[in-house]
Structures are given as C-alpha cells and as structure tokens.
Amino acid sequence: MHAPASSHDPTAARQAWALALGLALLYFGAQVLTRLAASPALELDEAEQALWTQSWAWGHGPQPPLYTWLQQLVFLLTGPSLLGLSLLKNLLLATTYLALWRAGLKLMPAPLAATTALMPLLMLQIGWESQRDLTHSVLVTTVAALTVLASLRLLEAPQRLGRWALLGLLVGAGLLSKYSYAGFALAWFAALAWLPAGRAALRQWGAWAGLLLAAGLAGALLAPHGLWLLDHGEAARAHAAGKLAGAAAPDALARLLGMGRGLLGALLAAVAGLMPLGLVLLLVLGPRGLRSAWQAPVAEATARSQRALARALGGLYLLTMALFFAALVILGGATQFKERWLMPFLLPLPLLFFASLPALQGHPRRRWLHRLAALAAVIWLAGIGLRTWVAGERNRPDELNEPLAALVQGLHAAGAVPAGPFTVISSDRVLAGGLRLALPQARVEVRRPDEPPAALPAGPLLWVGRGADVKAASAALPQGLPPRQHWTLPVHPRGPGRVSYAAAWRDAGAGPGP
C-alpha cells in the first residue's frame, strides 16, 4: 500500500481550481448578501462575537479564542458589522468545501472528488446549521478539513519539513478553535499511524524531526492561551462538563445505564448527522449500485493503491473514532451528545466513502448527486432569507425578529445616544451584541439587573432592557438612572408579535450612581 498520489494536466487543474473558486464565491457570496438582507439583528453566537471582539484577550468565555481573533481581523477591514460577521463565517465554510475537494484529488479521480466536495451540503449541521447560527463549530470543521488535506499531502512526502510545519500549525489552530478538535485529531492521527503507509512515512528520513517541529509549533501557538487557562480554565471545564454529562449516578447500576445511554447517544448523534446524506446515497445509487461499485475491479495501479488506502483508512478511522467516544463515555462520564459536536469527526467520512468506491465515477446516476446538492444549496439559501419573515408571520419570533433598527431609531429620537463615546449596558446578550454593531461608538457590557450601582461606569451611560426583563431591570436601576422611555415595537420584518423595551440614560459629566 502506498501513499496517495495524483497526477493532473496543469491546464485542466487550473481550470478546475478556477471553476471551484467561482462556484464557492457565487454560493457563499449569495449567502452573505441573503444574511444581510434578512435582518440587522443577531443570533446568539453572532452576538457573542460582537461583544468579545471589543477587546483583545487570550481567552473568551468557555470556548477557545481563535474565532474571535479572526473576527477582530475581519473587523479591521469591515468595521464592527453584520457584514464582517457573515463574511468570516462564509469564508470558513468555503474553505471547508475547497479543502475537502483538494483532499479528494489525493484519493480518487477528479470527477468523483468534485462529487465528494458537494456532499456536506447534504449534511444538515454543515449545510444548514452552520449558516443559521454557529461559529466555533464552523471554524473547527474548517480546520479539520485542512488537517485531512495536509496529512494526506504529508503521506506523499514525509521528509518535507514544511508540510510538517503546516500540520503543526493546523493542530494548534484546531485546538484554539474548539477543544473537541483534540478528539478528532486523536482519532484521525491514530488511524493514519495505524496504516502501513503511515508507519512507512514515520520511518522516512526526517520524519521524526518533522514530528518534533510540528509539536513545537503547535505548542508555541497554544502556549499563551494555555497560560490563560491556568487562571480561567474552570469556566471552560464547567461548560464542557455541563454539556456532556447528566446528573451524577447514585449507584453502580445507574452508572452502567448512564454509560449505555451515553454510548447510544453518541451513536444516534453520528447517525443523525449522516442520515440525510446516507438516505440520498441509497436512493440515488441504490444498494445494488453500491455493492457493484465496491466489487468492481480497478485496472490502473495508482487507482488501486488509492482505493486500498481509503478503505483501510476508513475502517481504522471508524474504529479509532468509536474508541474515542467509548472512552469519553466510560472514562469521562459523558452521557449526552449533540450533532454539531460531531461535525469535525463526520466530515472525512464522505471523502473516505467515495474514495473507497472509485467505480462510482462511471455510475449513470452520479450526476443526480450534484443536482440534489445544488437543490439543497438553493433550499438553504432560501431558508436563510425567508425564515425571519416566516417566524414573524407565524408569531413565533426568534432572535432575528428583534426590531433592532426600530429600537435604535427610537433611542436616537429620544436623545439617548450621545455623539461621543459612551457605555451601553443590557442584561440580554443578544440585544447587547446587536447594539454593539448598531452603536459603534459605544462600549457595550452585559450586566445582571441586580448589579450594584457602584459597579456602573462613570460618564455617559445608556441602559436598555427588553421583554420580560424590563420591569425587573427597571426596578433594579440605581438612583439617578430612572427609566426614561418605553417602547412596544412590532417584530421584524412583520407579523402580529410585539416586543417591549425600556431605556434609561445618564448624560455626560455624571458619575456613577450612589
């Protein structure tokens, strides 16, 4: 068994790359424009990024900081804006698809690699949820795709230190994207090292020097955040424990039942993540077509080598992934899993599936996979554009139905927004994030309604509360900052729903309340 290899006509390769870039620009550019048109309000993950990017830090909340750092860089170009938020996410998603396509070229014929690159559109967590409201999960999936590509390139030339350096930087970036990358990397690299091709690569001259270089670069990239975690890591640990674990089991039998639920939960999350894609493959290609493609002979030596590598790697990766989740349940006490947590784990599976069946290149219905992926892309695009309108009409508003533009217009009309720098306070993170983008001259903070008056900053100050929090927050306002204005506004863009707001403000020159 040999490392992956591929040969392309240079002109054809350039044309394919230009076509892939053009399609990615067309689709993800349309997603950016659709998101901008949908609503000026923010989803929760978007709002958190709007708030965290106000200052540089080695860590933000319970997740690693790389997404926020990248968002700060984008904001240098776009300013704090919805455009900047949407642009970064869609750049990352485009990179994921392109990296998967480039990885496919290492393992299968070019037409089949193109099919592979479209398959994430048929995975709900990547095709839809990543557009709807995810940030760290999007980034870790992108880095996972780049890791797969970089490791396959490394198998081709394990003596090249530059490829080891790139892999080390990707590992560091993955761990700075989301801590779950550690599980993906462990499963993926264990599967690679288990392969004869992987073991042969590690025996190459310079491979161990490259491994040390990769480890050193990953460690250097992680060191500042690691030092930050020494003082702030409890929040991240508590967040992870709360997400993965249920209530503590009182006895041995309950613990065994909890392990069973955890193993079943991991399996069901994986099945749910792959189910739409799996159903499409079965319906389009059929069990007989898949069986024939599995058994079909391959005449060309390189293609046989690629197929053998993909089948071995696919089997080993499924095994190491299963072992990781079993250890997480049995040793770590995990009892619950969500589909989005498995995004980086599941992403390589379509790649390995199609690489294991190169005969699918000639399947008469393979083009239907392209058509269905294109249909899914249109559905996701329409969903992003229409869901705010549909939610408003059904009187089931979500975050994007926040009438943020009308609220900000009311604040300006009431004289609550000074011309210079000032501080905005809200107890609602989503509202606070939206106000940060709508009032770029303000420093926006999220505070509990019962924060003591002494904790309020000096200078011009605006407090905004909404919904059920308005009455309680108004009662908790410090002396000297009484409620000045109330609004009841229709939801965005239209519908029977209404949202209540209250605002209070302190003019320039005033100090903190007593």
How do the helices and strands line up, and which of them pair or pack?
Elements: H1 10-38, H2 44-52, H3 66-78, H4 82-105, H5 110-118, H6 124-133, H7 136-156, H8 161-177, H9 181-194, H10 196-202, H11 207-244, H12 252-295, H13 301-330, H14 343-346, H15 348-356, H16 366-393, H17 404-413, E1 422-426, H18 429-438, E2 442-446, E3 461-466, H19 469-475, E4 485-490, E5 498-506
Parallel strand pairs: 1-2, 1-3
Antiparallel strand pairs: 3-5, 4-5
Quantity of strands, as a count: 5
Indicate the proportion of strand residues: 5-15%
Q: What's the order of the H and E elements? A: HHHHHHHHHHHHHHHHHEHEEHEE
- Using only C-alpha atoms, the radius of gyration works out to 26 Å
Helix proportion: 55-70%
Sum up the overall morphology in one term.
Answer: globular
Query: From the helix content, strand content and strand pairing, which structural class follows?
Result: alpha/beta
First and last CA, distance: 76 Å
Query: Biggest sheet, open or closed, and with what strands and sense?
Result: 5 strands, mixed
Spans where pLDDT lies below 50 across 5 or more residues = none
| Physical arrangement of strands within the biggest beta sheet | 2-1-3-5-4
